[in-house]
């Protein structure tokens, strides 16, 4: 019993933490929630990761294509971009573009 309850409690505590993005139910397309772990949809002043919320969808798509092909150097995005096909990338980009800047 305790073994089952403890992880549940731990994740409840994590979700209730100060990261306010976790409060809102996620309404994005498949895959987009894997981006928001790094690219915040709310303002985080000390983040070193570029904000993509509110950017033009076409720009996000271009970045993703170039990361995927290796045309644009990256530390992590090349690997991540390879995990999404064009259709998924378009949907994710459109969703980020619709988020408040
Ligand atoms: C592990 C953290 C991480 C995840 C997850 C992640 N990114 Fe990134 N992203 C970065 C970092 C770091 C950069 C800066 C380039 C680099 O070093 O790879 C970046 C750069 C970008 C850029 C370029 C922004 C600019 O102005 O230079 C775009 C667009 C982008 N990511 C989109 C996405 C999308 C869409 C997803 C989800 C499919 C995603 N990222 C998931 C960390 C992440």
Could you explain how this protein is built, in words?
With 101 residues, this protein is mainly α. It contains five helices and no strands. It has helices at 2-15, 32-36, 57-69, 77-81, 86-97. Helix 3 (57-69) packs antiparallel against helix 5. The longest helix is centred in the N-terminal third of the chain and has 14 residues, at 2-15. It starts with a helix and ends with a helix. Residues 31, 34-35, 37-39, 49-50, 52, 60, 63-64, 74-77, 80, 84, 92 line the site of heme C.
CATH architecture type: Orthogonal Bundle
Whole-angstrom Rg: 16 Å
- What is the count of structural domains? 1
Determine the CATH topology. Cytochrome Bc1 Complex, Chain D, domain 2
Contiguous low-pLDDT stretches (5 residues minimum) are 5-20
Tell me the quaternary state. Answer: single chain
**CATH-level-4 superfamily name:** Cytochrome c-like domain
Report the span from N to C terminus: 44 Å
The profile of the biggest β sheet is: none
One letter per element, helices H and strands E, the order comes to HHHHH
């Amino acid at each position: 019993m305790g073994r089952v309850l403890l992880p549940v409690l731990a994740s409840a505590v994590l979700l209730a933490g100060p990261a306010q993005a976790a409060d809102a139910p996620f309404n994005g397309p498949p895959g987009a929630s894997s981006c928001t772990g790094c690219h915040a949809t709310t303002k985080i002043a000390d983040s070193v990761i570029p904000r993509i919320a509110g950017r033009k969808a076409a720009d996000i798509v271009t970045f993703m294509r170039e990361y995927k092909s290796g045309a644009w150097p990256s530390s992590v995005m090349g690997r991540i971009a390879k995990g999404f096909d064009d259709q998924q990338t378009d949907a994710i980009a459109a969703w980020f573009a619709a988020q408040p800047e």
